[in-house]
From TrEMBL, chain A:
It is an enzyme of class 2 (transferase). InterPro entries: CysN_GTP-bd, CysN_II, CysN_NoDQ_III, G_TR_CS, GTP-eEF1A_C, P-loop_NTPase, SO4_adenylTrfase_lsu, T_Tr_GTP-bd_dom. This is sulfate adenylyltransferase. Its EC number is 2.7.7.4. It comes from Actinoplanes auranticolor. GO terms for biological process: sulfur compound metabolic process.
TrEMBL record, chain B:
Its EC number is 2.7.7.4. Pfam families: PAPS_reduct. It comes from Actinoplanes auranticolor. Keywords: ATP-binding, Nucleotide-binding, Nucleotidyltransferase, Transferase. SUPFAM superfamilies: Adenine nucleotide alpha hydrolases-like. It is an enzyme of class 2 (transferase). GO terms for molecular function: ATP binding; sulfate adenylyltransferase (ATP) activity. InterPro entries: PAPS_reduct_dom, Rossmann-like_a/b/a_fold, SO4_adenylTrfase_ssu, Sulfate_adenylyltrnsfr_sub2. Residues 33-256 form the Phosphoadenosine phosphosulphate reductase domain. This is Sulfate adenylyltransferase subunit 2.
């Protein structure tokens, strides 16, 4: 027999949910050690990986096992001792599966951090207790708030090197909290840790009896993310039209997509944009059968009661709650291309939800200094890793919401029309 | 899609929804996608996701097997059964034919992992495939941990790790010029354990060699290789019958089995959860060549 179907037991079906978080830090603040510690304490590092890292560390003459080698996978990274790109790491506890987007602090930090933060539920920023907040900590906090990451954790690391001095921790925590308030930053938690010794990582440490908050892992496991999703505004970008060409299934026409926000139910009145036609949801299908409701991040197939012309790039919403149908868009743009800057008058391809169009840059209102938050209104262009507020005009309307209200229908990318490179990331402020 | 309580999804449902989204994006934006199907567990899971993404329609693209000629018969049988069940078009890119025609040359050690690459690229060119679904996961290996979900390849099929497109939100950039292509990895965010949990949840049949069975093996460098037409015991090696299973299924001349009593999916899950060695480290002779073995192969156009 070459095939075997085996019965799962109940334990394997235990529901765990998923938390995506981004880490940011500079070279020597202990970020790699912290990630190594999280992986080690959750038994995610494998013996052969550890042996390989130990062998390379020893060969290079490192005094201790360099856990950064676990994440630095590319030849150039190992040769130069730097991290080039966002690395994704995975670990799980019985409560949650975690995806870490580990972004390097020094090279291309803005591009990488913005990329990692775009899908993150939580951002983790490290500071060295001896140094306190540095320019980079503020920059990371700003980018986190720009990308609307709902939860922010500041880890005050290397507490062992300041003898677990409560005053040092509180000074940093206070300073960061008041800075974060200015940014309209989301839920903030500050935790004193020692990544090297594992204090306050997997469990609360006896070395900080004055600290009454959770350990880092406990916080990651329990932080409430279910209500971060927008369950109010129904937005269903049509991705693909399913029309089986077979004898078994006739007259089937389903609109496949992933629910961006809101809750869809059979019987709901809906409106389809940009046409504005209205209909009702006849059924919500999945390969496992129809469902009573669909909500983010489910991928489903919606059928309507009326035959109306719908194609990829259209959006299903509610008649009394619709996104803007807009060709003029104002957005914050993070420029990601090293070969050429963003210039007024330039044309790009824009990808927004499942809709692709062309766009022209009508104006650059200001360039933002991410360290001082100063707005330079005379800036002629946006270079690599620069952020600014831009006016765009598109060839066809976008079906868009403000990014602060909806990360899926408020975010877009710009693509260079000749090289096809992804050159910019945008967050819509206003669409009309 | 099972829900435990209102508006919550399990991690497996979230991973499935993401993979389904990615497959639909490809179908909507590319002209000639193909799914790389080896009969290994990851490609089997990927095929199930493709079934789900386009139901009730059939999977709207062909599958391709880059056939090293070094196969486990159970896996080939599985491949053919599955392809027939789903009514798929199977493209076989044969390494043996490529050797016979002079496209590639057999390596002195007889292994065929590395010489798969030109065979794969020739098939991509012949059939003008513009998107190739691969079952690679980021947890497998650290070069892969840095690869995008949509991984751009130039007209030579090469991956340039320092020149990757930033990937934000769920906005994937699949734009390319004629002759270029995109490798798409819908399982990027899955771990080995996620794959096994999903196999259990979906009750997916696998080739029997993934479960514990008695087999004649020889031990080499701490790994257990099945004695077959490709692996002949060397002087001084003893052939023993051991209870083993395969954690990965690759070229039969290079893939080792692990000692195991796990003959059900739940026992495999327990074993995977408890193991302290990565699956490639435990079973792939080809990955032990150097620190950068995988990166080098990917640069050449490997999966």
């Amino acid at each position: 027999m070459s095939q075997a179907v085996l019965e799962p037991d109940e334990a394997t079906a235990r529901p765990m949910d998923l938390l995506r978080f981004a880490t940011a830090g500079s070279v020597d603040d202990g970020k790699s050690t912290l990630i190594g510690r999280l992986l080690y304490d959750t038994k995610t590092i494998f013996a052969d990986q550890l042996e390989a890292v130990e062998a390379v560390s020893a060969a290079r003459g490192d005094e201790y096992t360099n856990l950064a080698l676990l994440t630095d996978g590319l030849r150039a990274e190992r040769e130069q001792g730097i991290t080039i790109d966002v690395a994704y790491r995975y670990f799980a506890t019985p409560r949650r599966k975690f995806i870490i987007a580990d972004t390097p602090g020094h090279i291309q930090y803005t591009r990488n951090m913005v990329t990692g933060a775009s899908t993150a539920d939580l951002a983790l920023i490290l500071v060295d207790a001896r140094k306190g907040l540095v320019e980079q900590s503020r920059r990371h906090a700003f980018l986190t708030s720009l990308l609307r990451v709902p939860h922010l954790v500041l880890c005050v690391n290397k507490m062992d090197l300041v003898d677990w001095d409560r005053g040092v921790y509180e000074k940093i925590a206070d300073e960061f909290t008041s800075f974060a308030a200015k940014l309209d930053a989301p839920d903030l938690t500050v935790i004193p840790i020692s990544a090297l010794d594992g204090d306050n990582i997997a469990s609360r440490s006896e070395k900080s009896p004055w600290y009454e908050g959770p350990s880092l892992l406990h916080h990651l496991e329990h932080v409430h993310i279910a209500s971060d999703r927008n369950l109010v505004d129904v937005r269903f970008p049509v991705q693909y039209v399913i029309r089986p060409q077979s004898k078994d299934v006739t007259d089937y026409r389903g609109y496949a997509g992933q629910v961006a926000s809101g809750v869809l139910k059979p019987g709901d009145d809906v409106m389809v944009l940009p046409s504005g036609m209205t209909s009702k949801i006849a059924a919500i299908d999945t390969a496992d059968g129809p469902v009573d409701e669909a909500f983010p991040p489910m991928s489903v197939t919606v059928r309507l009661t009326d035959e109306i012309d719908i194609s990829r790039g259209d959006m299903i919403c509610r008649p009394n709650n619709a996104p803007a149908v807009a060709q003029d868009v104002e957005a914050m743009i993070c420029w990601m291309d090293e070969t050429a800057p963003l210039r007024v008058g330039a044309k790009y391809t824009i990808k927004h939800t499942t809709r692709t169009a062309r766009t022209v840059v009508r104006g650059l209102q200001y360039r933002l200094d991410v360290n001082t938050l100063h707005r330079d209104e005379d800036a002629p262009q946006l270079g690599l890793n620069e952020i600014g507020r831009v006016k765009l005009r598109t060839t066809v309307p976008l079906l868009a919401d403000e990014y602060r209200r909806n990360r899926t229908t408020g975010g877009f990318i710009l693509i260079d029309e000749s090289s096809n490179r992804t050159v910019g990331a945008g967050m819509i402020i206003e669409a009309q | 899609m099972s829900q435990t309580k209102p508006y919550r999804v399990s991690h497996l449902d979230a991973l499935e929804a993401e993979s389904v989204f990615v497959m639909r994006e490809v179908m909507a934006e590319f002209e000639r996608p193909v799914l790389l199907f080896s009969g290994g567990k990851d490609s089997i899971v990927m095929l199930r996701l493709a079934e789900k993404a386009f139901a009730p329609a059939r999977i709207p693209f062909p599958v391709m097997h880059v056939d090293t000629g070094h196969n486990f018969p159970e896996v080939l049988e599985y491949r053919d059964t599955r392809v027939a069940e789903l009514g798929l078009n199977l493209v076989i890119a044969s390494v043996q034919e490529a050797i016979d025609s002079g496209l590639v040359r057999e390596l002195p050690d007889g292994t065929r992992n590395r010489i798969q690459t030109p065979v794969l690229l020739a098939a991509v060119e012949k059939y003008r495939f513009d998107a190739l679904f691969g079952g690679a996961r980021r947890d497998e290996e650290k070069a892969r941990a840095k690869e995008r979900m949509f991984s751009f390849r130039d007209e030579f099929g090469q991956w340039d790790p320092k020149n990757q497109r930033p990937e934000l939100w769920s906005l994937y950039n699949g734009r390319h010029h004629p002759g270029e292509s995109i490798r798409v990895f819908p399982l990027s965010n899955w771990t080995e354990l996620d794959v096994w949990h999903y196999i259990a949840k979906e009750r997916i049949a696998l080739p029997s060699i993934y479960y514990a069975h008695d087999r004649e093996v020889v031990e080499r460098a701490g790994m257990f290789y099945a004695v077959n037409e490709f692996i002949v015991p060397r002087d001084g090696e003893t052939v023993e019958t051991r209870r083993v299973r395969y954690r990965t299924v690759g070229d039969a001349s290079q893939t080792a089995a692990v000692l195991s009593e796990a003959d059900t999916v739940d026992k495999v899950i327990d074993e995977v959860a408890a193991t302290r060695i990565t699956e490639r480290g435990a079973t792939r002779g080809d990955d032990k060549v150097s620190e950068a073995a995988m990166e080098d192969r990917k640069r050449e156009g490997y999966f």
